[in-house]
Write a structure and sequence with these properties.
globular, mainly beta, three-stranded antiparallel sheet
């Protein structure tokens, strides 16, 4: 399945190749929220894979970490918006709980280079 390019429609969307951060800054089985020149990015390290999403809950477009930094469920499967409890699968971004059900996070392609730097893919 092709990765959605909806992220490119957000204001201040970074260009492919834009450096994000060293992979070592993303906690294992955790998340890292960043602001890339006005673009809200959420990195998720879960299930042995790095994924990235626009950090905007499609329920009301608030950042998932608007009211706190704990986003990932204890089992590492669900990202939860801290504002209204909307839940999204960490692996796919699919909305599965609360006001997020039936919605989805917008994926952002990322890749890690030989230098350990995460970049927009």
């Amino acid at each position: 399945m092709a990765l959605s390019e909806a992220w490119k429609g957000y204001r201040h969307a970074p260009e492919p190749g834009t450096p994000v951060c060293p992979l070592s800054e993303v906690p294992e089985a955790g998340t890292l929220c960043l602001n890339l020149g006005g673009f809200p990015l959420l990195l998720v390290n879960a299930g042995g894979a790095l994924r990235a999403w626009v950090n905007a809950c499609p329920h009301q477009y608030l950042p998932l970490d608007h009211k706190g930094s704990r986003l990932l469920s204890a089992d590492g499967r669900v990202l939860r918006c801290t504002s209204h409890g909307a839940g999204f699968l960490a692996e796919t971004g699919e909305g599965v709980e609360g006001p997020g059900a039936g919605l989805a996070l917008d994926p952002v392609p990322v890749a890690t280079g030989a230098d350990g730097m995460v970049r927009i893919g």
